[in-house]
Write a structure and sequence with these properties.
CATH class: Alpha Beta
Order of helices and strands: EEHEHEHEHEHEH
Strand order of the largest sheet: 4-3-5-6-7
Strand content: 15-25%
Largest sheet: 5 strands, parallel
Oligomer: single chain
Length: 164
Protein backbone atom coordinates (compact mmCIF):
# COMPACT_ATOMS: atom_id res chain seq x y z
CA UNK A 1 0.00 0.00 0.00
CA UNK A 2 1.31 3.45 -0.89
CA UNK A 3 0.43 6.68 0.79
CA UNK A 4 0.49 10.25 -0.44
CA UNK A 5 3.30 12.06 1.33
CA UNK A 6 4.35 15.69 1.31
CA UNK A 7 8.03 16.33 0.72
CA UNK A 8 10.10 19.08 2.34
CA UNK A 9 9.36 21.50 -0.51
CA UNK A 10 5.60 21.02 -0.08
CA UNK A 11 5.12 18.78 -3.14
CA UNK A 12 3.26 15.50 -3.00
CA UNK A 13 4.50 12.10 -4.08
CA UNK A 14 3.54 8.47 -3.63
CA UNK A 15 5.71 6.32 -1.47
CA UNK A 16 5.79 3.57 1.06
CA UNK A 17 5.39 4.79 4.63
CA UNK A 18 8.63 5.02 6.55
CA UNK A 19 8.45 4.37 10.29
CA UNK A 20 9.64 7.23 12.47
CA UNK A 21 12.71 6.55 14.60
CA UNK A 22 12.04 5.78 18.27
CA UNK A 23 14.11 8.71 19.45
CA UNK A 24 12.21 11.47 17.66
CA UNK A 25 12.25 14.63 19.78
CA UNK A 26 8.49 15.15 19.77
CA UNK A 27 5.68 12.64 19.70
CA UNK A 28 2.99 13.13 17.09
CA UNK A 29 -0.69 12.58 17.76
CA UNK A 30 -0.54 9.37 15.74
CA UNK A 31 2.44 8.11 17.77
CA UNK A 32 0.64 8.86 21.02
CA UNK A 33 -2.51 7.05 19.85
CA UNK A 34 -0.52 4.05 18.60
CA UNK A 35 1.44 3.76 21.85
CA UNK A 36 -1.71 4.04 23.94
CA UNK A 37 -3.59 1.49 21.83
CA UNK A 38 -0.73 -1.01 21.92
CA UNK A 39 -0.59 -0.83 25.71
CA UNK A 40 -4.11 -2.07 26.50
CA UNK A 41 -6.20 0.74 27.98
CA UNK A 42 -6.44 0.30 31.74
CA UNK A 43 -9.77 -1.14 32.92
CA UNK A 44 -9.58 0.77 36.22
CA UNK A 45 -8.86 4.48 36.04
CA UNK A 46 -5.60 4.70 37.91
CA UNK A 47 -4.61 8.22 38.88
CA UNK A 48 -1.25 9.64 37.77
CA UNK A 49 0.37 12.93 38.76
CA UNK A 50 2.56 14.40 35.98
CA UNK A 51 5.15 17.02 36.96
CA UNK A 52 7.32 19.11 34.63
CA UNK A 53 8.15 22.81 34.58
CA UNK A 54 7.77 22.91 30.77
CA UNK A 55 4.02 23.23 30.05
CA UNK A 56 4.32 21.65 26.57
CA UNK A 57 6.12 18.60 27.95
CA UNK A 58 3.65 18.30 30.82
CA UNK A 59 0.70 18.36 28.42
CA UNK A 60 2.30 15.91 25.97
CA UNK A 61 2.98 13.37 28.73
CA UNK A 62 -0.47 13.92 30.26
CA UNK A 63 -2.17 13.43 26.88
CA UNK A 64 -0.28 10.20 26.25
CA UNK A 65 -1.20 8.83 29.66
CA UNK A 66 -4.85 9.91 29.31
CA UNK A 67 -5.10 8.15 25.93
CA UNK A 68 -3.96 4.98 27.70
CA UNK A 69 -6.90 5.23 30.09
CA UNK A 70 -5.38 6.81 33.16
CA UNK A 71 -6.82 9.79 35.03
CA UNK A 72 -4.17 12.53 35.04
CA UNK A 73 -3.45 15.58 37.19
CA UNK A 74 -0.65 17.94 36.16
CA UNK A 75 1.67 20.23 38.10
CA UNK A 76 4.19 22.73 36.72
CA UNK A 77 6.55 22.61 39.72
CA UNK A 78 7.67 20.14 42.34
CA UNK A 79 6.17 22.30 45.09
CA UNK A 80 2.80 22.33 43.30
CA UNK A 81 3.04 18.55 42.86
CA UNK A 82 3.84 18.02 46.54
CA UNK A 83 0.82 20.12 47.54
CA UNK A 84 -1.38 18.11 45.15
CA UNK A 85 -0.04 14.82 46.56
CA UNK A 86 -0.72 15.89 50.14
CA UNK A 87 -4.28 16.85 49.25
CA UNK A 88 -5.11 13.88 47.04
CA UNK A 89 -4.16 10.28 46.35
CA UNK A 90 -2.28 9.16 43.21
CA UNK A 91 -1.41 5.68 42.01
CA UNK A 92 1.82 6.87 40.33
CA UNK A 93 3.89 10.03 39.85
CA UNK A 94 5.80 10.89 36.67
CA UNK A 95 8.24 13.72 37.32
CA UNK A 96 10.92 15.73 35.62
CA UNK A 97 14.17 16.09 37.57
CA UNK A 98 15.52 19.51 36.57
CA UNK A 99 13.04 22.05 37.84
CA UNK A 100 13.64 25.43 39.49
CA UNK A 101 13.24 25.62 43.24
CA UNK A 102 12.46 22.13 44.52
CA UNK A 103 13.82 19.63 41.97
CA UNK A 104 12.58 16.15 41.15
CA UNK A 105 15.03 14.44 43.50
CA UNK A 106 13.77 16.56 46.40
CA UNK A 107 10.16 15.89 45.38
CA UNK A 108 10.77 12.12 45.41
CA UNK A 109 12.38 12.32 48.85
CA UNK A 110 9.50 14.45 50.19
CA UNK A 111 6.89 12.07 48.75
CA UNK A 112 8.64 9.02 50.18
CA UNK A 113 8.52 10.68 53.62
CA UNK A 114 4.70 10.66 53.45
CA UNK A 115 3.33 7.29 54.63
CA UNK A 116 0.72 7.20 51.85
CA UNK A 117 3.45 7.56 49.17
CA UNK A 118 6.02 5.18 50.66
CA UNK A 119 5.20 2.56 48.00
CA UNK A 120 3.66 4.67 45.21
CA UNK A 121 5.50 4.18 41.90
CA UNK A 122 7.64 7.21 41.00
CA UNK A 123 9.03 7.58 37.48
CA UNK A 124 11.74 10.09 36.59
CA UNK A 125 11.44 11.49 33.06
CA UNK A 126 14.41 13.73 32.42
CA UNK A 127 16.92 15.19 30.04
CA UNK A 128 19.64 14.49 32.64
CA UNK A 129 21.66 11.56 31.35
CA UNK A 130 24.95 11.73 33.18
CA UNK A 131 26.39 8.44 34.44
CA UNK A 132 25.19 8.96 38.02
CA UNK A 133 21.71 10.39 37.31
CA UNK A 134 20.00 6.98 37.33
CA UNK A 135 21.59 6.03 40.63
CA UNK A 136 20.79 9.42 42.17
CA UNK A 137 17.16 9.05 41.02
CA UNK A 138 16.95 5.58 42.56
CA UNK A 139 18.47 6.77 45.84
CA UNK A 140 15.98 9.66 45.94
CA UNK A 141 13.08 7.23 45.72
CA UNK A 142 12.30 6.88 42.01
CA UNK A 143 11.35 3.40 40.85
CA UNK A 144 12.35 3.95 37.22
CA UNK A 145 14.17 6.46 35.03
CA UNK A 146 13.39 7.42 31.42
CA UNK A 147 15.53 9.80 29.36
CA UNK A 148 14.03 12.55 27.22
CA UNK A 149 13.01 12.49 24.52
CA UNK A 150 10.83 9.68 25.79
CA UNK A 151 9.51 6.84 23.73
CA UNK A 152 5.73 6.86 24.42
CA UNK A 153 5.56 3.05 24.55
CA UNK A 154 8.39 2.93 27.09
CA UNK A 155 6.55 5.29 29.42
CA UNK A 156 3.28 3.37 29.15
CA UNK A 157 5.07 0.03 29.60
CA UNK A 158 6.79 1.41 32.69
CA UNK A 159 3.52 2.61 34.23
CA UNK A 160 1.80 -0.66 33.41
CA UNK A 161 4.65 -2.66 34.98
CA UNK A 162 4.87 -0.51 38.12
CA UNK A 163 1.14 -0.09 38.70
CA UNK A 164 0.42 -3.77 38.13
Amino acid sequence: MFTTMINEQGGRHLGAPVPAPHNTPTATGAAIRAAAESNDARPARLRVLVVDDAPDVTEMIATLIRFAGYEVTTALSAAEAFDAARGDSFDAVVSDIGMPGMNGYQLAEALRALPEYARTPLVAVTGFTMYDDRERARLSGFDDFLSKPINPSDLLDTLKRLCG
